[in-house]
Amino acid sequence: MFEALGLSNLAESVYLTMLEFPEAGLEELCRVLRLDRERLQEALDDLARMSLLNAPPSGARPPRPVSPEVGLAMLLARRHAEVARHQQEIEESRAALEALLAKHAASRPRSPEPEVRRVEGIAAIRARLHELAGSCVWETCSFVPGGAQAAAGLNCGALDAEAIARGVRLRTVYLDSVRNHQPTLEYAHWLTELGGEVRTTPTLPMRLLIVDRRLALVPVDNDDSSALALEISSSGLLSGLVALFNSTWKNAVPLGSVRWRDDEGLSAQQRQVLQLLGEGYTDEMIARQLGVSVRTARRIASNLLSRLDAHSRFQAGARAVARGWIAADDLR
Q: I need a surface site. Which of 98, 250, 274, 323 has the fewest CB within 10 A?
């Protein structure tokens, strides 16, 4: 129960028993705990070292336990301070690494032409993704559209775990719809428990992977991301992709947070559907954008049209703008 504070199971058992029987002598403690004197003394030494025992004026009586309000609270405060110091050291190391990488990148000779390499076919793309996962030093940023992920797409758990163990910061943005797909949701929660950071958003512009802000991998065709990808290392293009990721990340909702609704009771996903309706998207196109089934997209659109008393998608968009549900600039 208190292992995180540095207490062994033996020391914890002895301490809790001493709290329960504060007047117990050493022999009685041995009997209650079913310990020999050597093991009991070992635990008492540990408790004394952690300032959880009050030594009596003389050796006639055994030491008495310090109250948990004082003793355990002190250990907890000490542990908090250690964690905070460790976290500060990590952040200082991260900042130093970012400065070093930036300096190193600035000193590299720049190619006058954009640096873009073609990666063709699903086998080559997967192999390159594995290489990048293994070579990543400090950060990966990913957009994962498509909603519910197939089992093959969730088989990179070992690579993610290994990267996090090396100190790599993993930031991933999924679609809101993954919250309704248990396997994908379980994987995302597992990733956060390891130390990864996961957020969700109604729609994503593309599939994207950025590694150490030195290169990015993007599909040529969003509808068939396995056919051909471009590996981009041009600083100008990378700056734009990093800015796109950071903007999306800032507006996305952390996994586990309650999804926000506005004063009209609209979720971020519903607001996005209103924009797509105003742009004339079909149910099939909306479903692809949201990563949901066509049936679900049709139900969301139908509900919004009904609330707006609209008879067409364009009319729904216009009325949503008129009511202030979305801004005119949201419609492209």
A: 250
The pLDDT value given to residue 35: 85
Residues 128, 119 contacting (CB under 8 angstroms): yes
How many domains does the chain fold into? 3
Range of the domain at 64: 1-108
Distance CA 144, CA 148 (A): 10
pLDDT reported for residue 108:
65
Per DSSP, the three-state class of 253 is: strand
E strand or H helix that includes residue 117: strand 116-120
Q: Is the domain of 100 the same as that of 40?
A: yes
Residues 63-119: tens digit of each pLDDT: 788 877 777 777 777 777 777 787 787 878 877 887 777 777 666 665 544 578 888
Q: 3-state DSSP call for residue 130?
A: helix
The model's pTM = 0.55
CATH code for the domain in which residue 311 is found: 1.10.10.10
State whether residue 292 is helix, strand or coil.
coil
Report the distance separating Cα 320 and Cα 304, nearest Å: 9
Please list the helix, strand and coil fractions of the chain in percent, rounded to the nearest 5, in that order: 55, 15, 30
3-state secondary structure of 302: helix
State the Cα angle at 311 between 177 and 279, rounded to 5°: 55
**SS3 state of residue 147:** coil
Residues 82 and 5: their CA atoms lie apart, in Å, by 11
d(CA 13, CA 303): 59
Dist CA 219 CA 120 (whole Å): 10
Nearest to 160 by CA among 142, 174, 183, 176: 142
